[in-house]
Structure formats: C-alpha cells, structure tokens
C-alpha cells in the first residue's frame, strides 16, 4: 500500500530560510502567522492528510463514485467524514475573511495545505478545493447579500461550491456557450442549459451545493462579451436559511474516467434553475477569472503533489527491492542482491524527480506569497509588481508543473518494474490522477498561448522584464560566491536562452503570429526551467548559510540536488530555444489532408 | 469510438522505395515475396486488423479477463473468434518454416503485421505474439521431437505459447529464480514453482497452452549459470497427440492492471508439472534469449503501434472539433469556430508524432530486414554484420520506441481536451496500454544498461563503428544534394554528439562504471534519435526520387516532415550529450538516507 509523509520540514525551510516569511508581517494575517504558529498549523495539516486523507485514496479510486437512477451521487467510503474533518479543522476557511468565519491566515499556508492534501488524496482534495475557488469568486464579485447568504456555510463545510463553464461543444472557446439566463423579474434569473465535466457537481457530502454557472442573458451580445456569472444553489433556500426543495438542478450522468475516480465528474442539467447574478452583467468571464487563476495555481500544485507522492513511494521501493549488484561491487553482500537504489539509472531517475519537486515547491510558494502581497499589501507599487509576476507565472506554473509532474509520476512508476503496472501497488493511480491536471483549468497548450499571446507582452513586457532583472541581479550579486559559482554559470546560460527566445518573438511573431503559436509551449517550458533554476540558486544560498552554522544532512543534500538540476535538467533550455527559433514554417506547411 | 486504418501505403513506400526489398530476393522466402504479393498480403492483414481486431479493442478493455474459481480464465467477447481468424489466415506461421506448416515468408512482413495488429488491438495481439515467440525459441533450441510435437499445432492456432521468467522476488535479476526441476528418470522433469506476470498464461482461446518455463535443475550452480529452459504443456498429451489431463499447471490469480485488460496476466503455479528440457542444461537463458530478442522487437513495435493509432484518432478529432479561430484569421468563417487543426500548437503536436511514427516504422523495418539477413543469408560476413546491428539496435528499438510511443499517446490524448480523459472516447486506453511496453521484456533502464554495458563495446565496438560509417557515408555521398542539405547539417551535428558521447564513455566509464550507468539512458535515446534522423534522410532521398517522377502529395509531405524532425526533435541530442558528460558524481553523491 502506498505511503505519504507531508514534507513539512522542506516547507518550513522554504518559508523561513528561503523566502523569509517574517519580513511580510506587516501584511494583514501575517502577524498571526509567526514561525511557531506556522509550524503548528502545518503539523496539524500534515497529520490530517497522512492519517485521514491518504488511507482512503486507493480505496476511493477502486470504489469510485456512483450515480443512482434518481440523480443522487454516492462518493467513496470515508469521503464524507474526511470532508467534515477537513472543514472542521478550519482548512476551508484558512485564508478567508474572518467576517465570514475564516481564519484570515496567509493564502500561502493554504497553498501548502493544498499540496499535502492533493498528494494524500487528489480526488478528495478537489471537493474542498473547488469550494474554496467558489468562495474566492463570490467574495470578490458577489453582493453583500450573496456573501452573507453563502460564504459562512461554505466556509464551515455545510455547503460546497463548484464552477460550471464547459458545455458539450465548448471548453476552451467559451464564446460558443449556450446556457441561457432569463430574468424572472424579481432580480433573479431562470438558468437553463447543460454543463459537462463538472467536478464535484453532485455528491453526498454536503447538504447543499452552490454552483457558479456561466450563462448568457437573453439578448446579450454573441461571443465572450455576452457571458454572465450566476450563483445557483442546487436546493432553494428557505427564508430561515434552511435548505428547501430542488432548484431545477440535476446531475444527468457521471463520467467513467481515466483517474480521479473518487471525484464525481458530472453532466449538470439546469432546467429553469433560479440563479443570481455575480458581478456585472456580461462580465462573467471577468468574475470567473478570480476563480480560474486560483484554480490554475491549485492545479499546478496537484502536479507537484502527484510528483511528490509518487517519488516518496518510488524511494521506499528502491530502498527495499533487491535486484542485481552495484556496478562498483556488492553494497549488501549478506543479502541475495543489492537494493535497486544502488543502480545509477535508478538514482538518476529519483534525483531528477527530487530536483524538480523541491524547486517546484519553492516556485509555488514564491508565487503564493505574491498572491498574498497582491491582495493584502498597502503599497500599490508592491501590489502591482506582485500582480505582474502572478499574471506571468500562473500559466507557467499550471503548464510546467503539471506536465513535469505527470512525467515524474510515470518515472516513479517505472522504478517498480512490472509491479508498478498492477493496481494494488497503488502507484499507477498517481499516473492516472496526475494526467487530468494537464487538461483541466485550460489545457496546457492554452496556458502556453495565454503566456505568449497575452502575458508576455502585457504592459510593455513589464512582468518578464522584472523577472529578467531579478534573476540577473541575483547572478550579479553572487558572482563572487565560490560555492554558488558552479550553479550560476548554467543558470546564466539558460537565462540567455530565455532572453533570446523572448527577443525572437518580438522580432518574428508580431508580423507572423503563427511563430508565437508554434513556439508557445517551448517558451512556457523554457521560462519554467529558468524559474526552477532560479529557485535552486536561492535555495542553495539559504542552504549554505545554514551549513555555515553547522553540519546538516538536509542542507548538504540541497547543494548536491541543486547541482544535479543544473547539470541534468537545465540543459533542456537549449533545445527549447532551437525549436522556438525554428519558427512555424514546417509546422504549418502541410495541408489538412496531408495529416 | 476510435478509428484505425493500417498505413499500408507508408509500409510499401518503405519496403519498395526506401529499403528496396527486391534486392534481397536471393534470400529464402524473399523470392516468393514479390512486390505484388507483399501488397496483397499486407492488404489482407490490414483488413483483418481493421475489421476484426480493432472493433473489439475498446470492448475488450472494458470487459477485461475473468478468472473463475476453478482457475479457468475467460477472455473478452470476440477474442477466441479473432484468434481463429488470425491463425486461420496463416498469420502465426507467416515467417515460420514450411516444414512445420509455416509460409516461410520474410520475418519483415511479420513485423509489419505485428504493427497493424498491435495498433488495432494490443491486448489481443499479445496472444499470437507470445505464441510466435515461443515457436521461435522451440524452433532454434528444441529437439526434433519437441518441434514435431508442438510447432505444427502452435502454428495452426490449435495451441498457444507463453514465456515464464519472472517470479515474485525476481524480474530483471533472473539469477535469483527458485523454480525447481527434478529429473523424473525418463528424460522429463518435474517442475515446481510460482511464476508471475505471465501474459496469456491462461485463456479460453486455444485447446492447450505450451509454456516455456525457466527453472533450476536440482543441484545446478547458483545464479544465471544454473538456469534451464523447459517446455511444459498445460495439459498432457496422449500418445495419439490429443490433449489429456491437466499437467499440474494452474493459474492462481490474474492481475488487476493499468491497461491491456484484454490480455490475462497470470500468476502460474507449477506443481510437479512434467516438462522437457529445451536446449542444453543450465543454458536456459541462452535459449530464452532467442525469444527475448524477438519479443523486444515486438514490444518496440507496440510502442510505434500505440503512437500510430493514437495519432490517427487525434488527427480525426483535430479536423472535426471546432474551437477558436486561426491566429491568421478565420479559416472556416461559415462555421461557429475553426477546427482545432488550424492552431499552431495542435499542429506542432501532431507533426511531432507524425515525424516520429514514420521514422520509427522505417527503423523497425530496417532492423527486421537485418533479422531476415542474419537468419537467412548464405554470406557469413553479411549475416555477421546484420547480427551486429540487431544486437546493438534491439535495446534502442525497445527503449526508445516505447518511451516515445507512450509520450506520443499522451500527446495525442491531450488534443482531445477533457474528452480525452473519458473512457468512452477510447484514447485514454492507448495511454494505459502503451505504458506496459516501457516495462515488460526488460524495463527501459535495463535496455539502456544492456546497450551501454554490453552491446556498445562488444567485439571492439564493431556494431557502433559500422553505424557511424554507414551514416557518415550517407552524409558524404549526398553532401552536394541541394535538396537534402537542410537535413544533412542537423544530422551531422547530432551524429557528432553521439560520437562524442561514445568517446566520453571510452575515456570515463571503464575506470568508473557508474559513469556508464548514469549516462546509459541518455545514450540510448541519443542513439535512437540519430537512428531516426538517419531514417529521415533515407526517406527524404527516396521521396525526392519519386517526386522527380511527378507531383505526389504524400512525398512532398515526407520532405516537410523530415525537416520538422531535424528542426524540432533532433536538437534533443545536445541535452543528452550534456547529461552524459556530466558524469555520475552528483547522481551518486547522496547517501541512501538523504532520499
């Protein structure tokens, strides 16, 4: 059976030593998050994930969700109790406004808990995860009445939330959506239409489900400029706030999927369901974007989380499975064979996952802190800079962490040989679960286009220029540090590749947009690799500081892993640059019939 | 529902125009395989795969295999009839000796049929595939009596064959195996032990199952030098050749796996089962290697096959699914959106799979022809050269085609967005099925070690030197060809990377074998990429010859795709070289506890 231990120590190293979270204690909520409090909070979160969520991960996958003929959906054994424990522990409201029952702690801590929960049980973590996304959208765009009506009960776990965007004929291209909203004359609307791929759309966990639904108000303009966002409870609310009759909302079927079996993916039918506008008419996409950006960071975290749990299990197996002898002579001569962790190809694999996971965790927290700053700082310039970075990095986080996270789950599975292909081992589930993260919340190709087509050039390229300056500044400031030198050279080279790629787009993509499209995915990965490399030099610097204070096995491992990343992962940037500068000509040359 | 069309035209282009199969008509069996005969044979094979095997692929995955309490195993609906059609069409015996009922045609045609069948229905194709492997081992190492007893009925489809290597505690390291063989005194042996992961170990398709089993004769030396191969029929044979009582062979359970659900993966129990030695005592691995090499090429073909069928389905979807508009303006303004094949990122993905598939198909056939030459040529030097290449390229074919084949199935699935994650779409099955090919018949890390540790330096590096000479010779001979020039430069560069890597191993791995182990997988992929690049220049040259004879859409597509491969796939070789020359130091530096 699979194992999972939340990497609390590694998180604390990042928060305390690499990002120095204490210096943000002027932000609302951060003063409450002293180093001791953070350690206690994360320790509690880790316990919940390890002891409650992880034990029902494999069983949840095997059991899956069941839709009954009357439209009710049963979730796997233990999910309802786990949700109660999750909400009861205050995790849904961790970073939410205390006015509505939240704890007001940094969003950054919520991102950490999301990693642990998604590693322990990704299908489960989606239930509170979607609820938190819905809360965020309602908090920013909902009227006071809406907020008072829904937020406290969503935060305390009585009700859950979902997002309803996709329709059978449209996912990426939301301009095509057809779900209708007809004014009822009392300020509410009658919503009718069919939504598909609605995660957690129906379940037996909470007493009501608060759906956020994109729909088109009768007479609205065509395309994306005629889409509005509505809040649509599955069950009507009585005047006293209690849950009443069904509101014309039903689950028509659930999907038979490759993975995340424990989460019900529903076809949702809205049949004149009563809904209320969230935000302005025809500005639904804008309101939904609040939810989508958080959701994208959440999905990025799922990529890291599956990579981490797969890694932990591969390491445990590699230490235990005896097969062959070390090339340099038997390491455990008393045993019939050596554990496979002695083999360089096994270590290469484990090191490459480890080098990604630790940098990806840093990359997530670096940006989660920016999210806190963007929302909470009193300094407009600081807010703006944080928001610039978040805008730029959100597609990179989502695209790169889920692509590599999936690859790593596959690599970890490979360590098990034939046993990795057997369901009972539990590791093939990580591969199947990780796969969805590359697809939902905007498929990774769409993330790449968002990055190159929108984010890169926004405000005169302010975001990417700030990144160049920050990384370039670090390289300059530390140029004389002998211990860091072997890391800085490779990073400098790859930063150069990134800058050349950005320059190439400037010169070649404006007149010929296909050049941007054909290079977008490579650019996303190139920026991702340089970002992860930057995380590694920052971590190495902090590790060295700590080593000066005394020997520390964990910190010396950081320096080795940093070097591994530079030697073996970062060289990919040259290939990305080569592909980008090849341009779109051969990519676009064939006629449709020649495929 | 998924589609599949066997790429007969592409195969014929390779056999006739690229490899000029007619020049081998001095080999036994090749004279019978005139161009017309080949076309007719492949046309029949294609029909069987498209009309019989493909329609039961998805249903076979959904239904899976069932083991009954009495140990019987039921295969999915239609598999028995399909096997009868397959054997009845003469496909099992296609390349087998006519003395035992085979058709004696080139093995190369069998490799083609294996591609089509594995693309149409991989789980099914394993039943005849394993039988063909067992036939090959018995044909080379079995006594005349064994051959007369088993081969005709295996070739005509009455009985099937399997291979039994793995035990619970040993897969890669067969030296650890424990299954015992005790002489019965009558020339036969009593076999006892448990084998796991036995594909097609039990089924309801054929009247008997002929197991090839590795076991240790009482008193044999420890390790791999004490392993012998036995033929063990599930049911005893009566004196008149009819099938008698069970021979102490039973299926203890079947595995619940990630994919290939239509193929029963069995735990096999041998309880004093009567078996006969195949080949010499204690030389079982040697005898099994005949089967394993063919099986490895067969698994390589599965990688290509899943990549091809996934590609075909992704193309069909990309032409049909409407979403967004082309960056250069609407391509189909009358429709609500353009088909997604207009988007550069979609094309990039499809082109990269296409560029792999066509080169991989050539790579397979180039080596399948070498297999025919190695077995059938009357010229000893020609046989030796062919065998050198096969030895060198078998691990590359197995490792690279299955790694990239799987990646391509994932990429193809990505084109479907959320729909690709749903079982009914049929494309996630390709991903799950393709996954096993990276694992069985020697996990790909083991292939890499076989290549670098054994094959590369064998006979003074004769195999790799011949490859360098052949590719170098092509580059030189065609240096003045203006049309090929854009392809030759990149290939020259990558060939240089390969040569530098080989040289680096010579200088750095002998004294420090971990340097070979840490770079093995990268070297395998580097050699694979250069091989695929070489296939592309050969194909481009042939395509150009044909274009001189008149316009041909297929041939002009070849030239574009060749260029795409050079621009976008081949640049990976630099990263592989960088990783290899980084050596093993950081890879091996951490203590086991630091993972």
TrEMBL record, chains A, B:
* UniProt domain Acyl-CoA dehydrogenase/oxidase N-terminal: residue ranges: 80-157
Q: Is Flavoprotein set as a keyword in this record?
A: yes
Acyl-CoA dehydrogenase/oxidase C-terminal domain location: 282-451
> Which intervals hold domain Acetyl-CoA dehydrogenase-like C-terminal?
467-590
Functionally, this protein is described as follows: Involved in the assimilation of dimethylsulphoniopropionate (DMSP), an important compound in the fixation of carbon in marine phytoplankton, by mediating the conversion of 3-(methylthio)propanoyl-CoA (MMPA-CoA) to 3-(methylthio)acryloyl-CoA (MTA-CoA).
Q: Which domain of life is it from?
A: Bacteria
Cofactor(s), names only, from the UniProt record: FAD
- Annotated signal sequence range: none
Domain Acyl-CoA oxidase/dehydrogenase middle residue range list: 163-271
Q: Which family does it belong to?
A: Belongs to the acyl-CoA dehydrogenase family.
Which InterPro entries does this chain map to?
Acyl-CoA_dh-like_C_dom (IPR025878), Acyl-CoA_Oxase/DH_mid-dom (IPR006091), Acyl-CoA_Oxase/DH_mid-dom_sf (IPR046373), AcylCo_DH-like_C (IPR036250), AcylCo_DH/oxidase_C (IPR009075), AcylCoA_DH/ox_N (IPR013786), AcylCoA_DH/ox_N_sf (IPR037069), AcylCoA_DH/oxidase_NM_dom_sf (IPR009100)
Q: Which reaction does it catalyse?
A: 3-(methylsulfanyl)propanoyl-CoA + oxidized [electron-transfer flavoprotein] + H(+) = 3-(methylsulfanyl)acryloyl-CoA + reduced [electron-transfer flavoprotein]
Task: Report the EC code(s) recorded for this entry.
Answer: 1.3.99.41
PANTHER family membership: ACYL-COA DEHYDROGENASE (PTHR42803), BROAD-SPECIFICITY LINEAR ACYL-COA DEHYDROGENASE FADE5 (PTHR42803:SF1)
Q: What is this protein called?
A: 3-methylmercaptopropionyl-CoA dehydrogenase
Question: Which Gene Ontology molecular function entries are recorded, alphabetically?
Answer: flavin adenine dinucleotide binding; oxidoreductase activity, acting on the CH-CH group of donors
Species in which this protein is naturally found: Bosea spartocytisi
What's in the keyword line of the UniProt record? FAD, Flavoprotein, Oxidoreductase
